[in-house]
Backbone:
DNA sequence: ATGATAGTCAATCATATGGTTGATAAAAGA
DNA sequence: TCTTTTATCAACCATATGATTGACTATCAT
């Protein structure tokens, strides 16, 4: 064990939060500006209570924050957490891409050798 | 209802897949090149069967693919799906950012007004 | 004070998820 | 053939998740 940011509870929650279409819909809506629970619930066919729960999930994932406005509880997007997610993904996308370049380079070096090179399994 | 890519079953699975630290560990490992189930299971304290299930989850999310090599079933990263995830996130990050710029522009137009403008909430 | 508006809390339910153990399949090695 | 290696299948269990209904709290409007 003892990994890198791979073992990060906050990422667990962030990714889990975005695995639901309702919550992604909420995030999409909030990207255009804050909204109340009622406003967020309107496009969906589920109860307001269910949407309220979804918002709590997003809040625990720190993807959104809430303020007060009389009886309203406007919800705001926290873009910093979205950024943390892409940072994680891009990190490994980049490693993978570089790994490919490295393989390409190797194949290019061999070059003149037998054509069987393309099927090769590269060692770690 | 009837949203954009927000209602995409493949995204559901992709985000759900990355919500588990074991599966993120597997992705991290695969970014450095293909690996067998045993190799992938080695760093974790859970059974090989459990890891096998995790790989199936990643496979259904299309984040990895599998080939054959005798009794081995090497697992490979599918970076295209990672890219689809960042594409979704970045789309709304961008909208949100532009929304901010728009707000900034408005505040700048008002300008001469009270200096309270700077109190707006800055991210990260 | 009364009532409407906005939202949460609590109990409940069905299904999904992550893990286990034990049995089995498939290919390689002897 | 018999054994080892690699991996999956099957049954099972505990907990988490998404949704519902009904009751409740808090704030605003008259």
Residues:
């Amino acid at each position: 064990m003892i990994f890198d940011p791979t073992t990060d509870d906050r990422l667990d929650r962030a990714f889990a939060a975005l695995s639901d279409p309702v919550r992604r819909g909420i995030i999409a809506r909030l990207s255009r500006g804050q909204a109340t629970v009622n406003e967020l619930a309107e496009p969906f066919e589920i109860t307001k209570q269910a949407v309220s729960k979804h918002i709590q999930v997003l809040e625990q994932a720190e993807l959104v924050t809430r303020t007060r406005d009389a009886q309203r509880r406007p919800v705001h997007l926290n873009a910093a957490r979205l950024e943390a997610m892409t940072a994680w993904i891009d990190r490994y996308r980049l490693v993978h891409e570089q790994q490919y370049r490295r393989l390409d380079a190797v194949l290019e070096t061999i070059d003149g050798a037998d054509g069987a090179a393309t099927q090769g399994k590269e060692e770690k």
Notes: Chain B touches chain A through 49 residues (CB under 8 Å). Chain B is about 55% helix and 5% strand.
